[in-house]
Amino acid sequence: MEKKKRKVLLVGWDACDWKLCDQLMAEGHMPAFKSIVDRGVRGKIATLDPPLSPMLWTSMATGVRPYKHGVLGFVESNGKGGIMPISSQGRKVDAFWNMFTKEGLKSNVVAWWPSNPVESINGVMVSNRFHLEKDGNKVLDAEDWPIAPASVYPESLAESLAELRVHPQDISGHLVTPFVPRAVELNKKESEETKLKIIAKFLAHSSSVHAVTTELLDTTEWDITAVYHDAMDHFCHAFMKFHPPKMEGMSEEAFELYSGVVRGAYVWHDMMLQRLLSQIDEDTTVIICSDHGFHSDHLRPKFLPNVPSGPAIEHAPYGVFVAAGPGIKKGEHIYGASILDITPTLLTLFDLPVGRDMDGKPLMEMYEDPKPVKYIDSWQNDERFGGELVADFKGEDAGNEAALQQLIDLGYINDLQIEKGEDAEQVSKEYFQNTMRENNFYLAKSYASNGKYEECLEIMLEIEDRNNPDFRYLIETINAAIKTKRFALAEEYLEYFNKMELFAPSYLDILQAKVQLGLNNPRLAFKALERATKNYPDSIEVLVDMGQLLNALRESDRAMVAFGKAIEKDPDNPHAHLGYGVAAKSMEDYETALEYFLNAIDCIYHFPLAHLHLGETLALMKEYETAKRSFEVVIAMKSPFIKAYRWLYDLAEITENEEEIKKYKALLDTISQGTKTVITGLPGEKLVRILESLSEQGISIFGKDDLLGENFPQGNEWYDDVNEELIYVPMSMLGSIPERYSYRLLFVNDNHDDVAMYINEMGKLRKATYNQNLLEAIKKQEEVSRVWMSQQPNLDIVYLNRTEDVNTDLIQAFIS
Amino acid sequence: MSEIIVVTGLPRSGTSLMMQVLNKANVPILQDGVRESDISNPQGYFELEDVKNIVADNSFLDKAEGKAVKIVAPLPIYMKTNLKYKMVFMRRDIEEILQSQEKMLSKDQTSEREKFRTIYEFHLKKTYRFLSEHDIPFIDINYNELMASPVPTLEQVVDFLGLEADAESLSEVVNPELYRNRNEG
Q1: Residue A127: CB partners within 8 Å, gap ≥ 6?
Q2: What's the mean per-residue pLDDT of chain A?
Q3: Could you tell me the residue ranges of all domains in chain A?
Q4: Which of A391-395, A476-480, A671-675, B20-24 has the lowest mean pLDDT?
Q5: pLDDT exceeding 70 applies to what percent of chain A?
Q6: Record: contact B118-A495, CB cut-off 8 A
Q7: Cβ atoms of residues A728 and A702 within 8 Å
Q8: pLDDT value at A1 more than 50
Q9: Residue ranges of E strands in A7-97
Q10: What is the pLDDT of residues A743-760, one digit of tens each?
């Protein structure tokens, strides 16, 4: 029997969240959605930062991050000094409908954001402006309601599809009743009318999108039909605050009236889905996904910041992913999906190659019997016709006003307001500049979210303007400065921040702590941290930052407490899980570490650092084969961690795999910058004597006169310029040696009492501090270092117990 | 000589001075004289107004063959990539550049020193990346060395550009008076 042709229905529900889906499925209110979950795979899908829908849905449709696809924010320049809603003109790379057109497959694409002007693809494209009923802020009458230009391809379908649109005026009070049971009664009260009109508008828009989709499913030939609904996100932004449990400060009356709206929106989407499912057969693959979730519980923000895109803080970092169809597993969970994975996955459904330049990966674990993935360098190099824009909107106002007004209404962009007596031209110019500045901010954030902090910082320094300060920009700048180890720059900004009183001092303290840690001032870091936690005990972000700092300071117990609290408040926080695991790992509790690293990866799969820690933990547990797979994932993610190669080399040696020994040795030789010899130990007379003895033998030693490390250089770039044969690294700084080198490490063992005596004699501490606390601190420092050393793949360690040991052949050979 | 000679570098790193040297060496200069000499650069800037608009329109380069033009960093990244260039890259200690700029703008920017330092670091990096990606030959000229020992430094420029000029006579252009914002500390 001939294999049936693959057909795919892709349904996008903006902001759909598992918490509500699971609740409503359990109550029997989302039967259509449940039917797909039951006969397919489900998983959380990670969003990208910043979580702004046009950027996210374009990443979904292209498989690449915003800094590659070019769609940034909600608006773009109209080419004549003004702005227009973000359009498909800004997209720099192929979307899946272009790839399918090149392959001769037919696509129906409905309302994707952004998709105006439409493209001449093989199939039908209806844009996200097709159903808008406004001209500027004026509502058009249902009787005289032209469709936005270039919103339907082929043009010949425009008239018939336009007939299917539903105007908000057509939504009567009764239709709103399922959402607000007292709608009819309320409609008489002017004060509540606005909210009901909003519901009517969202219903009309989604009905129009739905009607076009059902029409195209029935009347066209297609390989893929993709529909995007923004209504769930809009319903949530407008009504989640009324959703149970009642939020603090919400009036009883408002709660009673609107507490069912969000729930109604989910049920409404399920009803639409039910209809679509009735139009396809069981052989059609169905994928339902969202671009992010939406906080519906105690994580709902209590207020929205008054900044552009402020409402986006209501978004939760994980959305839904469900897939069902021939060859797809049933009733199983998949892990680590990202919105970047949708397009690569769609390509594999049609056995088409995935672009190596894509940031996403195909979700192969959803298949019962996965085939090897085909790859090409880039779909951009494929010169076959993939469709082109049917119009050039730059400089034209056609249809833009309505869509702009929609964005203003939703709170995503500020309106241009010219007060009496103001220079209109100047105000417009500033409005334009600020809007474009905001887009560049999103671009910088997009870089930062993929670890590209240099690129982020470069943009931030260009757009940050002290005459027009914005705390978000300053925080991003300081973070990027810290990440790129430009601590003096970070300090300069912190001083400015402090002077301007732009942000709560407690947040400043967190940033200050990070800077001080970077500057090797752990004590100052600690103080700043303690001030911050006093004022900000409940912030998840602060808890995670604090935990990370404590981990860096090797205060594993306290780090665990901080991460534990963060996880309690937000069980889906990957950084909190990772941090908890790191703390457990440094305490040699590998079972716990393993559990938390797996949690972190479950939250977000594209997290190379978590895979690296997972691999290390597995290796330390002697699970060599599984560890190997983790390190291979780290390398596949193109992360900068050379350590993964070192571990693979070590594992090959342990498992005596000659072929891999050769392979990784060769790879390491090309990546690694060579070997350095380091000497460390607790600062005491023995260390002094050993260093002297080595010096007398003519061996040059970097840092030998600074045993306590008071002037130890910042960062680790300086290692490249050290000409001395031996580098003295204080034990407390051992963790900062760069992983780009291999090390021969001389470790001087000494008696803790003697070390305490030496520290005391150096006059660094008052007499009273020569006590049990100092001994404890010394003991802990040594323990932490030993654990750390035992977990590194690039150290070859020799222990020195006596001064005379330096004369042994072994040590001499080791140094030379 | 068919290449376009581009003098680049951060503002206040001796780009105008190098233009004066080239002028003295009888290299035709692409300039419009819009920005006349002032107290910060008494002998003139040798600038072309079109350069400021290079992001939107770089067609002025079509007329630049065999001539010298000053394009401060990072603007060279907007140059046409199908033309042939030789670049003289003026380098000066960033601390001195910042002081010189502050003096010129009569503005105390000490609270933003790190910010500008980093921005300039990016501008230099970007410009060098562009030169290496497009295989554009360039020579680094250190402003301080040029001031301290003009003749040998200018000999390098003469050699690199293949000028028919004598470094000794060109060195007359280098006016020690200009080296007044030097960081003595």
Answers
A1: A88, A111, A112, A114, A115, A116, A117, A118, A148, A150, A151, A152
A2: 88
A3: 18-407, 443-671, 675-815
A4: A391-395
A5: 94
A6: no
A7: yes
A8: no
A9: 7-13, 40-46, 75-77, 83-85
A10: 889 999 998 888 888 887
The stretch A259-273 carries a mean pLDDT of 97
- Under 8 Å CB-to-CB from A98, ≥6 apart: which residues? A119, A121, A379, A386, A387
Residue A192 has pLDDT above 70, yes or no: yes
Interface of A with B (CB under 8 A): 457-458, 461-462, 464, 466, 481, 486, 488-489, 491-493, 495-496
- What is the arithmetic mean of pLDDT over A193-210? 93
Which position has the higher pLDDT, A25 or A570? A25
Encoded tokens for A697:
């033998």
Minimal C-alpha gap between A711 and chain B (Å): 22
Fold of A675-815: Rossmann fold (3.40.50)
* B33: DSSP letter: -
Q: Across the interface, do A495 and B119 touch by the CB < 8 Å criterion?
A: no
Residue with the two structure tokens 């057909």 = A7
From chain A, pick out residues whose CB is under 8 angstroms from the CB of B122.
457-458, 461
Contacts of B114 in chain A (CB under 8 A): 486, 488-489, 491-492
B4-177 belongs to which homologous superfamily? P-loop containing nucleotide triphosphate hydrolases (3.40.50.300)
Q: How many CB pairs under 8 A join A and B?
A: 27
CA distance linking residue B70 with residue B46, whole number of Å: 7
**Pairwise CB contact (< 8 Å): A486 & B112:** no
Closest partner CB to B119 (pick from A461, A481, A491): A461
Residue A182 has pLDDT above 90, yes or no: no
Task: Write down the ipTM of this complex.
Answer: 0.81
Mutation target vs A (from B55, B94, B110, B118; most A CBs, 10 A cutoff): B118
Domain A443-671 class, CATH top level: mainly alpha
Domain limits of chain B?
4-177
Task: Name the interface residues of B facing A (CB cutoff 8 Å).
Answer: 111-115, 117-119, 122
Other Cβ atoms closer than 10 A to A275: 14
Amino acid at A131: H
Share of chain A above pLDDT 90, in %: 53
Q: Tell me, what amino acid is at A783?
A: E
CA distance B20 to B18: 5
Contacts of range A132-137, beta carbons closer than 8 Å, 24 or more positions apart: A132/A205, A132/A399, A132/A402, A132/A403, A132/A406, A133/A167, A133/A168, A133/A204, A133/A402, A134/A401, A134/A402, A134/A405, A134/A406, A135/A401, A135/A402, A136/A401, A136/A402, A136/A405, A137/A405
**Between chains, do B117 and A496 touch, taking CB under 8 Å as contact?**
no
Fill in the amino acid letter for A57.
Answer: W
Q: What is the DSSP string of A726-789?
A: EEE--GGGGGGS-TTSEEEEEEE---HHHHHHHHHHTTSS-GGGSSHHHHHHHHHHHHHHHHHH
Q: How far apart are CA A368 and CA A186, in angstroms?
A: 53
Host H or E run for residue A315: strand A315-316
Q: What mean pLDDT comes out for the span A296-321? A: 87
pLDDT at A687: 92
The yes-or-no verdict on residue A683 having pLDDT over 60 is yes
A132 vs A38: CA distance, rounded Å: 36
Class of domain A18-407: alpha beta
Q: Cβ of A492 and B114 within 8 Å?
A: yes
Residue A750: what residue type?
D
Long-range contacts of A24-31 (CB under 8 A, 24+ apart): A24/A263, A24/A266, A24/A267, A24/A270, A29/A263, A29/A266, A29/A267, A29/A270, A30/A266, A30/A267, A30/A270, A31/A270, A31/A274
A492–B119: do the CB atoms touch at under 8 Å? no
